[in-house]
Amino acid sequence: MMRIEQLLAQAEHIDSPTAQLDAELLLAFVLDKPRSYLYTWPEKTLTTAQLNSFAALLERRKRGEPVAYLLGRQGFWTLDLAVAAHTLIPRADTELLVEAVLQLADASAALNVLDLGTGSGALALAVASERQCWQVTGVDRIEAAVALAQDNQQQLGLSNVRFLRSDWFSAVAHQRYDLILSNPPYIAANDPHLQQGDVRFEPLSALVSGADGLDDIRLIIAQAPEYLTANGWLLLEHGFDQAAAVRELLHLSGFTKVSSQRDLGGHERISLGRLPSLS
């Protein structure tokens, strides 16, 4: 039988910048305990079944499979979300988009919000959890992603958000929204990062968007004015080197107050613009 402290030492075999954390999360998952338990009871031994489960998960992680997919969970904003291999893993960088959305409007205003390409529902659910008077709609073209987002909604008990199957705007024709946000695919088809790290296991359809990574962003920016109210906002996450191109696209489509915001790494990670009033 092996002790917890012995098993955690196996983290050195994981090729990951967060190897120790990865091992802790996997072992805590197998034991159905919080991570603090591992250091409170380092001498505890595992059953054969627990050892086998941990060994299997550790081997999959050594092959590069993301921890979030192994656990089926990922934290985002203040939420704990179910995730699956047919959706992107919610990342901390995307929380910048939530922050920007919340800063744009009075918390007491009754707004309609649209999240394009919602995946697990992370953005829509985070916004809905912070603004109970807003009505939030999340859409995704993948039926399994919509089902996953609906499951997350039910687990969180949020009643001011709904999820629909839609190829971008196709299922919300004739609707108008005060805020439209999206973390769309924005990686170029030949980007070498697609062969590195966790993204190797994530769905390409949620990552890649044409030769320069901007195909979906172009489509969203071009069509968004038809679905925004006067003075409505469009906010987009994009690649670290795409901000200037996205701002130009926003300007060309008639958006005003166009700007970009930087993530914790100092990269311009999101860009936004406002649809002017018709008056």
TrEMBL record:
Belongs to the protein N5-glutamine methyltransferase family. PrmC subfamily. The gene is prmC. One of its GO terms (molecular function) is nucleic acid binding. Keywords: Methyltransferase, S-adenosyl-L-methionine, Transferase. This is Release factor glutamine methyltransferase. It is an enzyme of class 2 (transferase). Residues 5-72 form the Release factor glutamine methyltransferase N-terminal domain. SUPFAM superfamilies: S-adenosyl-L-methionine-dependent methyltransferases (SSF53335). HAMAP family: RF_methyltr_PrmC. Residues 94-190 form the Methyltransferase small domain. Signal peptide: none annotated. Substrate binds at residues 183-186. InterPro entries: DNA_methylase_N6_adenine_CS, HemK-like, N5-glutamine_MTase, PrmC_N, RF_methyltr_PrmC, SAM-dependent_MTases_sf, Small_mtfrase_dom. One of its GO terms (biological process) is methylation. Its EC number is 2.1.1.297. S-adenosyl-L-methionine binds at residues 117-121, 140, 168, 183. Methylates the class 1 translation termination release factors RF1/PrfA and RF2/PrfB on the glutamine residue of the universally conserved GGQ motif.
